[in-house]
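Mods, move this if it's the wrong board.
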Amino acid sequence: MRIVPPYTPDIQAWAENIRKFLGKALNQLDAKDQYSSAAEDGALLWDRTQKYVVVASNGSFKQVATKQTTPTANIGSAGDVAGMIAWDTNYIYICVGTHDGSTAIWKRIVLSTW
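Not the wrong board. Structure tokens:
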């Protein structure tokens, strides 16, 4: 079942509808047990500027490591920003800057067996 937030042109009414909607919809997310809701623990959000998932909890935001496209060169590509992580069978790649077309912003670490 798809849940769609209510919409109205009146911004105050819309905000109140969103508040009510979130109060109901957040309880439908995964929860730890039958007595707790996902809203009590935090929320996953998308950072449009940095282009990664963050978790909001206890008044702070933390990046969630998600696999990015493996860079083909250390200068990366448009949209790459510090904090991005990628990996393949040989390396873990970490982006340490913002793509500008010429600066090396990706570093990599060799993976080995142990």
